[in-house]
């Protein structure tokens, strides 16, 4: 099956095209431009350069979060619109789980991190080295200090992936010492090819999700909603 994958949950805007076990194309922009202006032109360019008509697409995988509230909404809305217009199925993919897939072959703790602002990160911890990632700590929003304390509860090397490695290194490397490792760029960045890879697993094990049931994964309320009780 030929799938389109979309990830706009961070500053990286990325799309990919492929079948299970085969990546045909991937376009990625890490230039901090508005995803609403870049996403559709990126998809159109990738399909054109790959000589693939949009009507040949058989499914869409989209990163549903956590991440940037605006970025998540843009990606999910675009995926819904395309799936509806082309009458093809949808698969929602957890951003952190997809990113952890970049290091799935390593027998270590995999710690994908995204800057959540307000002195927090979106984080999860998985154990790699097997055919399936084992969830050690589920996706959550917390401080780097709290994350560091939790990582001390587990043994083994810790491989950090994410969009702000210098800040993550400053907070976690002194605490973890020789256990601290980083996934090198560009593998540490969110990529639609990771969403594609994870999406095929979800498709095989769980099947597609109905359009109306594809929900963003925010982990906490958007700023505007958070302030409502204060007004």
Please write out the topology.
Blueprint: E1 3-7, E2 13-19, E3 22-29, H1 35-49, E4 59-65, H2 69-86, E5 90-94, H3 95-100, E6 109-117, E7 120-127, E8 134-142, H4 144-151, E9 158-162, H5 165-176, E10 180-182, H6 192-206, H7 223-227
Parallel strand pairs: 1-4, 4-5, 6-9, 9-10
Antiparallel strand pairs: 1-2, 2-3, 6-7, 7-8
Structure characterization notes:
The chain has 231 residues and is of the alpha/beta class. It has two domains: 3-95 and 190-230, ATPase, nucleotide binding domain (Nucleotidyltransferase, domain 5, 2-Layer Sandwich); 97-182, Nucleotidyltransferase, domain 5 (2-Layer Sandwich), CATH 3.30.420.200. It is built from seven helices and ten strands. The strands form two sheets. Strands 3-2-1-4-5 form a five-stranded mixed beta sheet, with helices on both faces. A five-stranded mixed beta sheet has the order 8-7-6-9-10. Strand 6 (109-117) and strand 7 form a beta hairpin.
Short description:
With 231 residues, this protein is of the alpha/beta class. The protein is built from 7 helices and 10 strands.
CATH topology of the largest domain: Nucleotidyltransferase, domain 5
Low-confidence stretches: none
The number of helical elements comes to: 7
User: From the coordinates shown, what is the CATH architecture of the largest domain?
Assistant: 2-Layer Sandwich
Shape: globular
**How would you state the average pLDDT, rounded?**
93
Residue fraction in strands: 25-35%
Q: Give Rg in angstroms.
A: 17 Å
Number of domains: 2
What spatial order of strands do you see in the largest sheet?
Answer: 3-2-1-4-5
Into which percent range does the helicity of residues fall?
A: 25-40%
The largest β sheet comes out as: 5 strands, mixed
CATH class of the largest domain: Alpha Beta
For the record, give the distance between the C-alpha atoms at the N and C termini, rounded to a whole number.
50 Å
Q: Could you say which structural class the secondary elements and strand pairing correspond to?
A: alpha/beta
What would CATH call the homologous superfamily of the largest domain?
Answer: ATPase, nucleotide binding domain
Strand element count = 10
Order of helices and strands: EEEHEHEHEEEHEHEHH
């Amino acid at each position: 099956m030929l799938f389109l994958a979309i990830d706009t949950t961070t500053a990286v805007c990325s799309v990919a095209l492929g079948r299970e076990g085969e990546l045909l194309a991937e376009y990625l922009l890490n230039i901090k431009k508005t995803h609403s202006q870049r996403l559709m032109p990126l998809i159109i360019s990738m399909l054109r350069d790959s000589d693939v008509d949009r009507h040949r697409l058989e499914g869409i995988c989209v990163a549903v979060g956590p991440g940037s509230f605006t970025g998540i909404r843009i990606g999910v809305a675009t995926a819904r619109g395309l799936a509806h217009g082309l009458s093809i199925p949808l698969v929602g993919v957890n951003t952190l789980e997809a990113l952890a897939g970049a290091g799935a072959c390593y027998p270590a703790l995999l710690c994908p991190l995204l800057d959540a602002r307000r002195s927090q990160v979106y984080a999860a911890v998985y154990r790699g080295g097997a055919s399936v990632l084992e969830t050690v700590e589920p996706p959550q929003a917390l401080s780097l200090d709290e994350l560091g304390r939790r990582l001390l509860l587990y043994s083994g090397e810790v491989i950090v992936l994410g969009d702000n490695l210098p800040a993550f290194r400053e907070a976690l490397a002194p605490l973890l010492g020789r256990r601290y490792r980083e996934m090198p760029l560009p593998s540490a960045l969110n990529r639609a090819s990771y969403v594609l890879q994870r999406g095929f697993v979800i498709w095989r094990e769980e099947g597609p999700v109905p359009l109306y049931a594809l929900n963003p994964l925010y982990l906490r309320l958007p700023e505007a909603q958070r302030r409502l009780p204060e007004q």
